[in-house]
Amino acid sequence: MAVNSKKQDDISETLVPTHIGVIMDGNGRWAKKRLLPRKLGHREGAKTFKKIALAGKAMGVKYMTFYAFSTENWKRPKDEVDAIMKLFEEYLDDVSSFEKENIRLVFIGDRSMLSTNLREKMKHAEEISRDFDSMTVILAVNYGGQSEICHSVKEIAKKVKDGELDINDIDEHLIEKNLYTGNIPPVDLIIRPSGEMRLSNFLIWQSAYAEYYFTDILWPDFKEKDLGEAIKAFSDRNRRFGGI
Ligand code: FPP
Fold first, then answer.
1. Residue with the nearest Cα to atom 3 of ligand 1?
2. Residue 96: is its pLDDT beyond 90?
3. 91 falls in which pLDDT band (50, 70, 90)?
4. What is the rounded CA–CA span in Å between residue 109 and residue 157?
5. Inter-CA distances, 99 with 41, 54, 95, 128, 208, Å
6. Which of 34, 50, 84, 88 best tests ligand 1's pocket when mutated (most atoms within 8 Å of CB)?
7. Is residue 171 part of a domain?
8. Catalytic residue numbers, as ranges
9. What's the rounded Cα separation, in Å, for the pair 234 and 16?
10. Which of 36, 99, 112, 119 is 20 to 30 A from 130, comparing alpha carbons?
11. In the prediction, which pLDDT does 4 show?
12. What is the total count of domains within the chain?
């Protein structure tokens, strides 16, 4: 974490989290309130994703992880799932706008269930942005924290079976290194809009010492100032990491 440089007056002298996780919730309710189809809520939610990622960068946040599609979201009607997948593709076609901002894109989650087309676009976006260093935006797609931990454990088990690792080498650090987020610092602040107060299987390992910020605002209505307020609230908390 760093004390923000005075780029934005309203958050100067604020302790800015290094890594923020965002659960983009409330798209469906936003659409329903306007008598619109749910997929239009997701379309607005995707615009908010881009706006808030750029605002995070301007405020000095180095990593932002957005929960875009969970391992449980396949239970939704097919046309809604298809609409969300289409949005991912559209935003990946527009990857040059992240390029201009020098933003690295990373995807976490199980890609095996995604279309070949989408997987190729994800790979391409990761490759071209690999060395961009103003900020890292991580999109969690077909992501679940419990399945991520299973994935890490399987990777380690393979190495123990092949004799590359001893069972006594297994510790928190090794499990962490084998998560999808292996090279990404733990999350400092989790933001969940829309009035729900759950983690919903998001970054469950990485958020062991995170602070949580809940607001009733629906994700498509979430503005730059709301991100600033969440960061201010974080800055006012007293994190002790188990100490006193
Ligand atoms: C949760 O709101 C939202 C999702 C499951 C999908 C989030 C996806 C997007 C914002 C599109 C992302 C696109 C890009 C390019 C990152 P909900 O539908 O559960 O809302 P509700 O609780 O009001 O029904």
1. 25
2. no
3. very high
4. 20
5. 26, 12, 6, 8, 32
6. 84
7. yes
8. 25, 73
9. 8
10. 112
11. 46
12. 1
